[in-house]
Amino acid sequence: MAQLTTNVDPRSAEYRENHAAFEQRLLLLRDRLRYAATGGRDAHAARHKARGKLLVRDRIDLLVDPGSPFLEIAPLAAWGQYDNEVPGAGLLVGVGIVAGAPCMIIANDATVKGGSFYRETVKKHIRAQEIAEANRLPCIYLVDCGGANLPQQDQVFPDKDHFGNTFLRQCRMSASGLPQISAVFGGCTAGGAYIPALSDEVVMVRGQARIHLGGPSIVKVAINEDIDGETLGGAEMHTRVSGVSDYLAADEYEAIAKLREIIASLGIERNIAPPRPVVPPRIGAETLTGVIPVDRRKPYDVREVIARLVDASDFIEFKPEWGETLVTGTARVHGFSVGILGNNGSLHSDSSLKAAHFISMCDQRGIPLLFLQNISGFMVGSEAERGGIAKNSAKMVYAMATAKVPRFTVIIGGSYGAGNYGMCGRGFWPEFLFTWPTAECATMSADIAANVMLELRRGSVSKGTPDQSELGGIDAAVRAQYAEQSDPYFATSRLWDDGIIEPAQTRDVLGLCLALSLSAGDQPRRDTRVFRM
Ligand code: COA
Description:
Elements: H1 13-38, H2 42-50, H3 56-63, E1 70-73, E2 91-98, E3 101-108, H4 119-134, E4 139-143, H5 153-156, H6 163-175, E5 180-184, E6 187-189, H7 191-197, E7 201-205, E8 210-212, H8 216-223, H9 229-233, H10 235-242, E9 247-249, H11 252-265, H12 288-291, H13 303-309, E10 316-318, E11 326-333, E12 336-343, H14 349-365, E13 369-375, H15 382-386, H16 389-402, E14 407-416, H17 417-422, E15 432-435, E16 440-442, H18 446-458, H19 468-485, H20 488-493, H21 506-520
Parallel strand pairs: 3-4, 4-5, 5-7, 6-8, 7-9, 12-13, 13-14, 14-15, 14-16
Antiparallel strand pairs: 1-2, 2-3, 10-11, 11-12
The protein binds coenzyme A.
């Protein structure tokens, strides 16, 4: 086993400059995460608490085992959209350990637009369910949800990956033996009502939880019936009369205790412990911030990153002398074996073929793959084309797309063009995809895109000859568009990833993801439906 060393000197001016610039990015990330968690809704949070309700993060804190890890997914969904009035898309999701069992927790935040569903809320809910299904995780829904956000209905309601799809997934997961359990904490109307109604077991909080397909105002308009919310859909009525709920809880604490009891009673046995003792890297992950150059275009050796991510900094490099723009090799992360592919420049024919070889070999040996993306794209030009870059890059894509082992992607820098595809971008369904605050994702750089668009305009047959001021306008507009859209917050807001993480957290995040993916196969699959009676 070869041990990676470092050529980065933490006392150098360059290290200090990189570190200082990265620290600024981390401060921005923490600030935005803080805002998404609690900011911008003081009046709603105060009203929520005055009603005796717990905030969504406090509910989760009580639900999960004390001191256990919680892997939050897409905390900055909807960031910067809707005047930033929908932090986290009004939904908190993540993998947590409940009564010893890893579970997917999907929790509405009623302090954000009544927990109603925006486009990103639906996307986040579905992403959580996808992760649950792939990793065989029971789902716990903490429901406090006004259903579809009505002004957004065209974005959330009828299409194949809109709100209805969350219910399809809920039914199918239940039928495949993945328990779907709900606790209801507030008013749940229409779509919000179906989350508990389609669950295997439901707890409702007395005097607080309500479930109705149509609330009092809808009932009044539809059938001219005057009725208050509690009588129409309160916890006592649903637990004693309709049977929509199975358990009546005196308060939120009792509801959460009941959820823990239900999960404990499932008898889930799942070993997520690492197969080997976990050895930290010999070079501390906290120094990653000094490794990544301030200027993204400045090259650096991805082995410096690998050395700070893998156990004991041990790395068996594959084909180190060939296809040098891609580093490939095996290592362990938190005791789990992984095959790593990290970019050291743009992908050429040889590095693409090396990737295809390495991926197929890991697949044959059952070794999960980790892609560290910092890629400007595949090589262009006559030499590259004559060397068959199109078919050779396609071999890499083919091998990666068809590999049966779990695949994980971290975008640590650039993620441009087909390079994003070859290195297992979102479209290739890696089990998890996280980014660093240094990530930039776009079809190409702003420079090249502006040139292409100017060229297209000059050659346009329909628009006539452009003058300088029009060309200047196109150049400025393309650059502004690319600057805005390649920002990692633009990407994470739209759930092109599972979240932006700090470099120093990457190892732990990957360790948890590996533990979940690799233990999923041991969980029983059933074909048994549960009908609520
Ligand atoms: N669509 C759009 N906005 C909604 C919404 C929905 N379905 N549900 C709630 N909101 C908004 C409210 O307009 C309010 O916005 P504001 O913060 O800008 O003032 C915010 O969410 C909080 O709503 P409010 O009614 O003050 O909160 P509440 O805690 O007293 O009640 C609900 C929460 C969900 C019970 C209640 O808002 C409700 O019944 N909403 C309508 C639900 C409905 O009919 N859904 C049908 C979907 S098909």
